[in-house]
Amino acid sequence: MVNNPELQAKLDALLNNYRSQLPVRQEEINRLWQSVCQQQTMGEEGKELYRLVHSLTGSGASFGFSALSDAASVFELQLKACCDDGLVIDTERRQLMEKAHKSLDNALSTTLMENK
Amino acid sequence: MLICATLSFDIVFIADTHCNDLYSFRFFEGKLMQELKKIFYVEDEPDIMAVALLVLQDVGGFELETANCGPSALTKIAAFKPDLIVLDVMMPGMDGPTTLLEIRKLNGLQETPVFFMTAKVQPKEIEYYKALGVIDVIPKPFDPMALSDQIKEIWRKHHGE
Asked: In this structure, what DSSP letter does residue B26 have?
């Protein structure tokens, strides 16, 4: 809480706006992840997924959703390795990414449920 | 021509009539330090831009100009004459480091202090940013209510060195 009602109202409006966009982001992340699962390398959709997850890492906790930033950060590191180093998505890597994706999906669902 | 005036016990104003610029300096820990007033902020993420803009203006009292991508920044920044430049790193198209290199080619912005505000803060990444000449890095996510103080601290540290 901020000791300035006007500033607090503005911050609350930004928070509500951010929260209202989370379901769209979750849907897009899931769609892109399903697409990446069909590929051997990241491709354009993989890079878009990396960008979206990176955005959640950098924004979640600034709006009070630390668990969201934490889960996104783990998934982002997996995606970064494949994007930046051009790694092939082998079975072991896919399993790690699947786990990280599931954690992020859960964190998004929990955040939305707890902040209806 | 430079005109110097002291209007209060610890603030000194210097006006450059040649280019119509007004600088204010404040004594901090016995040293005369240029006051941080104008910040140019480049950020592609609208939510982060909105919250940072709000707190830097309303809490920090800074004058802000913003751009949502590198090319847009390059068209606006010289006219704004910022005291400090804040750049996101990961932006589509022209990223933060490339934007920084392009800004350095513009007249009057070769020496303006720059720092990155980014979620890409692996040790090797920070090493790379420092090699580019940035004065510091603020990791994302940031605490909105602490951001202005963090920036003031970076400014003081930079001028104390």
From this structure: E
